[in-house]
Amino acid sequence: MARRKWMGDCGQAEGTNHRLSSLSSLHEGRWNPFQKWNGSPSKTGTTPLPKSEDKGIPPEGYPHTCKNEFPKIMKTSELASEFETAFPRLFGTLEYHTCTSCGTPESSFDEGGQCDDCWQKSPERQAQIQEEERKHIELCRSIAIRELASEVSPELRDTDTDHPEFNAAAWNRIKGAWDSESSDWLWLHSLSSGRCKSRIAYLLLLEKYAAAISGRVSKMGSTNGRLPGLLWVDGDRLTEACRVRHQYSLGEKVMGAAHDLVEDARTVPFLVIDDLTKRKITGEAASDGLWEVIKHRHEWKLWTVITDNVRPENMEDLLHEKHAPYIIRRLAERCIQVDFDATPSECGQSGQSCESKSGGN
Asked: Fewest CB within 10 angstroms: 118, 159, 196, 321, which?
């Protein structure tokens, strides 16, 4: 570190630029901000200016930092135009205009404009905000589609709500029922397939996930922090993973993959189990794993959608007797149940129906 030598009471260090001098030299008349330092190590390299006799007030043209004298100094420099633009209040070039809505005099807008408060409330600004929100929602939706690409089959990702065979009436009714309820579980069931249960589950997952990440996605598309996890799993695959996760004879690789799948199904913030009882659960090990998933998600109120081709009263025949009553009770307590076979109401296709009903908590 170079040795510093302080010169006198002006606060100027040897070998430093004159702009580093203390303000004490300004009051003693030794500092001129527009005079280049001449390299002399003594004082500031400037000639002290005489003080006026009026209580030490500098004479006309003397560099001073008070508001009245500052414009005179700046106008003598080559940066005068930039400073006038940046600091119009100091140079007296600031113009005030009256807001056309509330009449408040302001300097931040042009003649015939509005103040900030009125502009934020104006229809033009509200339309801009709505357009920005729409673009942000579309951006979050595209990110959600990208995250779901590795989880959901292309057939489901290509779901078209305008397709004539899509159950649009059921989709609109289920969406409205879930938005009006405080529950975070949904159970879609019917006696037959082809009712768009899986497609509706995908659309719900897409909307809920996009809404969940909206606070973490900037307008430019960058994400703040790690996005929440999600999982789309077939019921048959989940029960099989529950069955083999402790079978050491299959090897560590198979056991590890099965264990990871069950753990993800138990803890991810967003889960869809498609066709829960596609195959009868007869083994106790599979029933144990499924009960762990349902119990943990029920206790922590994690977002869950379940689709099935079995009515609730018939599900006990497809579950293992060890946990069948407990699993059915948890589903009935937490889920909004949507029975596509309940009543012959309007659900988009002939002979199809749905009825929303929420179980008690």
From this structure: 321
Contact at 8 Å (CB) between 10 and 25?
A: yes
Q: How many residues belong to the chain?
A: 361
Q: Please, what CATH class does the domain formed by 149-358 belong to?
A: alpha beta
What letter represents residue 252's amino acid?
Answer: E
List, for residues 309-350, the tens digit of each pLDDT value: 998 888 999 999 999 999 999 999 889 999 888 754 444 333
| Torsion of the alpha carbons at 312, 314, 315 and 319, rounded to the nearest 10 | 160
pLDDT band with cut points at 50, 70 and 90 for residue 353: very low
Q: What is the pTM of this model?
A: 0.67
Beta bridge partners of residue 337, listed in sequence order:
187, 357
On the CB side of 339, how many CA atoms lie within 13 Å of its CA?
13
Domain positions in the chain: 1-63, 149-358
CA dihedral over 342, 344, 346, 352, signed as positive or negative: positive
CA distance 291 to 295: 6
| 16-65 pLDDT per residue, tens | 444 434 444 444 444 444 444 444 444 444 444 444 444 444 445 444 44
State residue 321 phi and psi, 5-degree precision.
Answer: -65, -20
